[in-house]
Fold:
Amino acid sequence: MATDLLRGKALSAQCSVCHGKNGISRDPESPNLAGQSAYYLEKALVDYQKGLREDRRMSIIAKGLSIEDIKHLAAWYAAFELTVTEPTL
Ligand code: HEC
Structure:
């Protein structure tokens, strides 16, 4: 299946309330998703679906996603490029 970034972007609207508009979260309980590997994002979402990983919010959200949705979302968030700056000591 080819992943579809436009579809991933559209699906990500429902994630932004917690994970931030561009996958950079302002809620300390919700992790950043931008720049994470597609492999990790997909695995996390499938694990919530299967109950291998549990969270009261994510377990419900993941159950509403198809495997295609998960792949589009993973591709979308993985496509962000981040730059990091090491703290000055
Ligand atoms: C109601 C708030 C909320 C919404 C909406 C939400 N999430 Fe989350 N998400 C969380 C929280 C809180 C966690 C951390 C849960 C944990 O500790 O396992 C999380 C964890 C995750 C993780 C695991 C990240 C990691 O670093 O291990 C992924 C992937 C994820 N969310 C994707 C999504 C996607 C994709 C959507 C939209 C379809 C979404 N979330 C919608 C709150 C939310």
Notes: The CA atoms of residues 69 and 82 lie 23 Å apart. The pocket of heme C is lined by residues 14-15, 17-19, 29-31, 33, 41, 44-45, 53, 55, 57-58, 61, 73 (CB under 6 Å).
